[in-house]
Write a structure and sequence with these properties.
It is globular and about 75 Å long. The protein has 407 residues and is of the alpha/beta class. It starts with a strand and ends in a 7-residue tail after the last helix. The protein has a five-stranded parallel beta sheet. A four-stranded antiparallel beta sheet has the order 4-5-3-6. The chain has 18 helices and nine strands. It has three domains: 228 residues, Malonyl-Coenzyme A Acyl Carrier Protein, domain 2, CATH 3.40.366; 66 residues, 2-Layer Sandwich (Alpha-Beta Plaits), CATH 3.30.70.250; 87 residues, no CATH class. α15 packs antiparallel against α18. The longest helix has 19 residues.
Length: 407
């Protein structure tokens, strides 16, 4: 059965379930006590004094939400009938996803979310900023609206979260949001935030986070993690810093992620609690996949939709970049009157990459991916693919896996 774990980003969530876990589960209690030591202040006291996270400032809310989500996973993972085959986090939740997949150790993930919240809380802007949910508009209509307002006012306004085909969050300066409300015929619902998250206005935060991540160690993933930047699995642990930095200034491609997971045959979508955030955000999927919580999955309360919706495919994780290189080597046609020596050379390039692909136990190294791209370039040259097309094909691979700036 193909199961995906969905982890939430910043929002207003009840703390009741977490308090019960801390009180009755020794693993949860130990985790929060350890968190107090790591942070140097009592986040345990904070969770007990607050009924939900909605009233907390960003610097407190982000580590709190990370801990709540991670605690639920930490306490449930050994009781599940089957471990998730993939994990996805929405915005802030992507760090939780990386921790759940053991790409980041718990301490580093907690400190990183605390730093993320701190830098976003301290940010001040001369011009007020904000975000709003555009409901009923397509992605093309939302993008056109943002473009029109930005050009008219010379102020940043852009799509920040593609949450579903009919719900897109736009983000930017408050004046631009107000103008968008005047122009659109769709519903525009302001969000209770004072910053333009997932826009170029967050570059300062991306730079600070990049510096913080330079001190961290990223490990090969135990479970494939989907990047919100590419809507595809992280190709390797050494791409995490680069993609997490980009995530802060890039839109969350949630609709593409949901479509990708369906295409790959995922049939059961789990959240850490009985909250229905993602199910409600994607109403078009309600009758297509099975939604539930970790607790329901652990108790065997979810119907096995596997036989109904399995498509027999799986997520191409660590070897995705290598597979794409091999496919492009084959897909491009041979020119007429190709010399036999050239054919042998091209076949040698293909087998070099194929040998790397075959030996993958977890993930390719950065050097191996570079070698694959180099051999792909050689084959395209041998096949007399024009330089523009060759550059486009290689760039498409780099863009697809979010590693364009790394080669």
């Amino acid at each position: 059965m193909n199961v995906v774990l969905l982890l939430e980003g910043q929002g207003s969530y009840s703390t009741e379930k977490t308090k019960q876990l801390i009180q009755h589960d020794s693993n949860a209690s130990a985790l929060w006590k350890n968190a107090d030591k790591i942070l140097g202040w009592s986040i345990s006291d904070l969770v007990h004094k607050n009924e939900h996270t909605g009233m907390l400032e960003t610097d407190l809310a982000q580590p709190m939400i990370f801990l709540m989500e991670y605690t639920a996973w930490h306490c449930a993972k050994n009781t599940l009938p089957e471990a998730p085959n993939c994990v996805v986090g929405h915005s802030l939740g992507e760090i939780t996803a990386l921790a759940a997949a053991e790409v980041l150790c718990f301490e580093d993930a907690l400190l990183l979310t605390a730093r993320r919240g701190e830098v976003m809380q301290k940010f001040t802007s001369k011009e007020p900023q904000g975000m709003a949910a555009l409901i009923g508009a397509s992605s093309a209509e939302a993008e056109q609206l943002c473009k029109q307002v930005s050009q008219e006012l010379d102020l940043v306004l852009t799509c920040a979260n593609y949450n579903s085909p009919s719900q897109i969050v736009i983000s930017g300066y408050r004046k631009a949001l107000e103008r968008a409300a005047e122009l659109t015929t769709s519903v525009l619902k302001p969000l209770q935030v004072t910053r333009a998250f997932h826009t170029p206005l967050m570059k300062f935060a991306a730079d600070v986070m990049d510096e913080a991540m330079s001190k961290l160690k990223f490990y090969p993933s135990k479970i494939p993690v989907i990047s919100g930047v590419t809507a595809r699995p992280y190709p390797a642990s050494w791409t995490v810093r680069h993609l997490l930095k980009k995530q802060i200034t890039s839109p969350v491609r949630w609709t593409e992620i949901m479509n990708y997971l369906q295409e790959k045959g995922f049939t059961t979508f789990l959240q850490t609690s009985e909250r229905t955030l993602f199910r409600d955000m994607n109403p078009e999927l309600r009758d297509v996949v099975c939604w539930g919580s970790l607790e329901q999955w652990s108790n065997g309360e979810l119907y096995n939709f596997d036989n109904l919706f399995r498509k027999g495919s799986s997520v191409l994780f660590a070897v995705g970049v290598l597979s794409d290189c091999l496919r492009k080597m084959i897909a491009n046609p041979w020119p007429e009157n190709i010399a036999s020596e050239d054919v042998k050379q091209a076949q040698g390039c293909y087998h070099t990459v194929l040998d790397i692909w075959k030996k993958q136990a977890s993930e390719p190294t950065q050097r191996e991916v570079g070698l694959a791209l180099k051999n792909l370039s050689k084959v395209l040259t041998i096949k007399k693919i024009d330089s523009k097309t060759k550059s486009e094909q290689i760039e498409n691979i780099l863009e697809k896996y979010g590693i364009k700036g790394m080669y």
